[in-house]
C-alpha cells in the first residue's frame, strides 16, 4: 500500500508540474498572439485610421512623427488627417532631433515590422507547439494519475479483503475450538456418568452380597440348631446345601468381577481413543480416594 501511495503522489506531482507548465505556455501564447495581432495591425491598418493614412500618404513617417505621437492616436478614425503644404518636419513650430529617439514598437518601419512579424509568428508557433506537447504530456500524466489511483483503490480493496479473510479464519478457528471443547465436555460428562453408574452397580452388588451372606448365615444357624436335634444325616445335608450356596455366591461374585472388568476395559479403550491415559486416570482416582 505504501508503494502504491508513493507512486500515486509521484504521478500527481508530475501532473501538477506539467499542468503549471501548460498554464505558463498558454499565457505566453496569449501574449504572443497579442504581439502578433499588434504587428499585423501595424502592417495592415484599419481603413480610415490615422495609421492607414500615414502608411499610404506619408512614407517613412515612422522615423519622424512615429517617434513622438501617442500610440492610441494611430488607431483613431475621427482625426481627419491631411498633408500640410509645408514640407518641414517641425510640429506646431517645434523642431526636434528625432534621430536620437529609437523607433517605438507601435511605429516600426516596413523592414523592422516584417522582421518583428516573422519573429512573433515563429514565437507563436513555438509556443503553440510547446503547448500542444504540454497538453499531450498532461493527458498522459492524467492517465498515469488515474491508473495509479485505480491501482491504489485496487490495493486498498485487496488489503481489505485480506483483512476480512484473516478475520473470517480467526472466527472459524474460534468456533471450531468452541465445538471441540463442547464435544470434549460432553464426552467427559458421559464418561463420568457411566463411571458413576458402574460404581453404583458395584455398591449395589456388594450390598446384595452382604445381605445374602447375612441371610445365608442366619438360615444356616437356624438350620444348624434344628439339625443338632436331628440326625447326622440332616447335618450333612445342610452342609451340602451350605456349600451349594457358597458356590453360587462365589459364581455370582466371579460373574460380577468379569462384568466389571469388561466395563472397565471398554471404558479404558474409549478413554484411550479420546486421548486420555487410563493409567493416569486410575492413579488420579486412587489419590482422590486416599
UniProtKB/TrEMBL annotation:
Entry superkingdom: Bacteria
Positions with biased composition (Basic and acidic residues): 136-147, 160-189, 253-263, 279-290
Region (Disordered): 122-209, 246-290
Alphabetical UniProt keywords: Coiled coil
Coiled coil stretches, renumbered: 1-42
Record has Coiled coil as a keyword: yes
Name of the protein in question: Uncharacterized protein
Biological source species: Vreelandella sulfidaeris
Amino acid at each position: 500500500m505504501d508503494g502504491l501511495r508513493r507512486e500515486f503522489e509521484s504521478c500527481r506531482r508530475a501532473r501538477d508540474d506539467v499542468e503549471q507548465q501548460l498554464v505558463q505556455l498558454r499565457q505566453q501564447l496569449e501574449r504572443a498572439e497579442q504581439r502578433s495581432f499588434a504587428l499585423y495591425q501595424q502592417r495592415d491598418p484599419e481603413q480610415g485610421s490615422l495609421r492607414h493614412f500615414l502608411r499610404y500618404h506619408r512614407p517613412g513617417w515612422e522615423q519622424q512623427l512615429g517617434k513622438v505621437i501617442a500610440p492610441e492616436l494611430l488607431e483613431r478614425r475621427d482625426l481627419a488627417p491631411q498633408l500640410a503644404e509645408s514640407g518641414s518636419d517641425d510640429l506646431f513650430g517645434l523642431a526636434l532631433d528625432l534621430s536620437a529617439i529609437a523607433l517605438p514598437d507601435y511605429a516600426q518601419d516596413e523592414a523592422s515590422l516584417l522582421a518583428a512579424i516573422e519573429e512573433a509568428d515563429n514565437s507563436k508557433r513555438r509556443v503553440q507547439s510547446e503547448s500542444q506537447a504540454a497538453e499531450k504530456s498532461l493527458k498522459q500524466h492524467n492517465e498515469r494519475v488515474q491508473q495509479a489511483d485505480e491501482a491504489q483503490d485496487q490495493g486498498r480493496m485487496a488489503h481489505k479483503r485480506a483483512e476480512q479473510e484473516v478475520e473470517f479464519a480467526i472466527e472459524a478457528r474460534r468456533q471450531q475450538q468452541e465445538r471441540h471443547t463442547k464435544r470434549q465436555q460432553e464426552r467427559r460428562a458421559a464418561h463420568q456418568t457411566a463411571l458413576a453408574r458402574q460404581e453404583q452397580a458395584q455398591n449395589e452388588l456388594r450390598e446384595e452380597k452382604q445381605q445374602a451372606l447375612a441371610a445365608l448365615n442366619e438360615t444356616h444357624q437356624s438350620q444348624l440348631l434344628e439339625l443338632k436335634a436331628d440326625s447326622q444325616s440332616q447335618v450333612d445335608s445342610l452342609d451340602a446345601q451350605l456349600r451349594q450356596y457358597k458356590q453360587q455366591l462365589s459364581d455370582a461374585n466371579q460373574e460380577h468381577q468379569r462384568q466389571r472388568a469388561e466395563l472397565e476395559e471398554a471404558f479404558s479403550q474409549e478413554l484411550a481413543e479420546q486421548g486420555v491415559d487410563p493409567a493416569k486416570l486410575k492413579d488420579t482416582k486412587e489419590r482422590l480416594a486416599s
